[in-house]
């Protein structure tokens, strides 16, 4: 079964090389409006997007993200922020004492950002643009927060580069459907065998993509990643912003 929307979704690739063709403000507005149309828990609407155009800030953000040059050079760079500050504002407007710091608020605001951003990505791709998410801004998240002037109850979840693609990478193979779609209960009894077969496809993908300079399976990549610390500074930073206190 297929249709144009399904085909568009399945053709997603991360684009890291862009032409310098400009993108009109009307298109950016349309992309953000598409993001706003995403589902939002209890109508909370807890995502704020910051478009960064200042060249010096873009260079610093690229450095924060692990020297990913396209953060500085892509025609458009957006930062998606989980934002509970505006909710404090509306509580103040109604003389209501907001109870903040709940883990549930952190989850709903972060999920809102993910849903919002994915709508933006699909909207951009429907216009012939390419995108890449930039989770690397969390490498130096306190510095990013300072650069963007983020107040308490706001944190940067990830960035996104947008532009006209100047490369045509292959689509990266995803896990077999049987591994991610379960019926009634969680049953992973056959997952290891399915993952071993999938590993062969991923190894071939990397071999093809890099001209043979990289050969790695998915399970090797993930097991290597998960024996290392994962941004251990995040918890203290989120506490400092008023998140995850109860």
TrEMBL record:
Q: Which UniProt keywords apply?
A: Flavoprotein, FMN, NADP, Oxidoreductase
Q: Which SUPFAM superfamilies match?
A: FMN-dependent nitroreductase-like (SSF55469)
Q: Report the residue ranges that make up the Nitroreductase domain in this protein.
A: 9-164
Q: What class of enzyme is it?
A: oxidoreductase
Q: Taxonomically, which superkingdom?
A: Bacteria
> What GO molecular function annotations does the UniProt record carry, in alphabetical order?
FMN reductase (NADPH) activity
PANTHER family on file: OXYGEN-INSENSITIVE NADPH NITROREDUCTASE (PTHR43425:SF2)
Concerning its family, UniProt says:
Belongs to the flavin oxidoreductase frp family.
What protein name applies here? Oxygen-insensitive NADPH nitroreductase
Species source reads: Nitrincola iocasae
Organism ancestry: Bacteria, Pseudomonadati, Pseudomonadota, Gammaproteobacteria, Oceanospirillales
Please state the gene responsible for encoding this protein: nfsA
């Amino acid at each position: 079964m297929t249709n144009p929307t399904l085909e568009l979704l399945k053709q997603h690739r991360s684009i890291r090389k862009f032409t310098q063709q400009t993108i009109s403000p009307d298109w950016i507005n349309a992309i953000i409006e598409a993001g706003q149309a995403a589902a939002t828990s209890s109508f909370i609407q807890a995502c704020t997007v910051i478009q960064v155009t200042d060249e010096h800030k873009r260079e610093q953000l690229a450095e924060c993200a692990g020297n990913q040059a396209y953060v500085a050079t892509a025609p458009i760079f957006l930062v998606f922020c989980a934002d509970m500050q505006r909710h404090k504002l509306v509580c103040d407007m109604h003389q209501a004492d907001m109870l903040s710091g709940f883990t549930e608020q952190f989850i709903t605001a972060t999920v809102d950002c993910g849903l919002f951003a994915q709508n933006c990505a699909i909207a951009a791709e429907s216009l012939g643009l390419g995108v890449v998410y930039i989770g690397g801004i969390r490498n130096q998240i306190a510095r990013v927060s300072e650069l963007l002037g983020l107040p308490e109850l706001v944190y940067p979840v990830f960035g996104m580069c947008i532009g006209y693609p100047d490369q045509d990478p292959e689509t990266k193979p995803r896990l077999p459907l049987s591994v991610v779609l379960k019926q009634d209960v969680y049953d992973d009894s056959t997952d290891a065998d399915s993952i071993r077969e999938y590993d062969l496809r991923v190894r071939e993908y990397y071999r093809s993509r890099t001209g043979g300079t990289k050969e790695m399976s998915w399970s090797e990549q993930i097991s290597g990643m998960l024996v290392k610390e994962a941004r251990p500074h995040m918890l203290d930073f989120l506490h400092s912003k008023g998140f995850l206190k109860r």
